[in-house]
Amino acid sequence: MNILFVCMGNICRSPLLEGWARQVLAGAGHPATSGLDSAGTGDWHAGQPPDARAIAAAARHGIDLSEQRARGVVAEDFQRFDLILCADRENLSWLQARGGPAAQERVALALDWCGVIPGGEMPDPYYGTAADFDHACRLARDAAHGLLRRLSRQA
């Protein structure tokens, strides 16, 4: 299964979601690990690594985000990915508006789809403190474990 994680700039929340998903799925030997990616609804950070605070928060938990590079969502993503999980409703609305009718059932809130928080949104830590990045990191961890549980049930 190909899964895309999306937030606004692809430097904080979506890299954390992708990094944790890679770690958890690989640890369980799940084949979806090779089909994971992240992107932003905005492309102003394209080519840049994740925010240094996201890298540091992930590193405190043994997750390496340093090789990831930001990119924007492109039209082909709606065909390439079986599932597009986003951080919040603003990004969900953006994706739904651009994905067309065929993509609607493949686009969802990450925390909701992964069973972490029904209807939940992942707060953007960008203007926050290290504690906000740690909180986002914990939510990404919980989402990754929920993703594994849900994918394992579907197999």
From TrEMBL:
Molecular function per GO: protein tyrosine phosphatase activity
Active site annotation, chain numbering: C7, R13, D124
Keywords noted in UniProt: Hydrolase, Protein phosphatase
Signal peptide from the UniProt entry: none
Residues covered by the Phosphotyrosine protein phosphatase I domain: 1-150
Keyword Coiled coil: no
The protein's Enzyme Commission number: 3.1.3.48
InterPro entries reported for this sequence: LMW_PTPase (IPR050438), Ptyr_pPase (IPR023485), Ptyr_pPase_sf (IPR036196), Tyr_phospatase_low_mol_wt (IPR017867)
SMART domains, per the entry: LMWPc (SM00226)
PANTHER family linked to this entry: LOW MOLECULAR WEIGHT PHOSPHOTYROSINE PROTEIN PHOSPHATASE, LOW MOLECULAR WEIGHT PROTEIN TYROSINE PHOSPHATASE
Stated family: Belongs to the low molecular weight phosphotyrosine protein phosphatase family.
Official protein name in the record: protein-tyrosine-phosphatase
Organism listed in the record: Arenimonas terrae
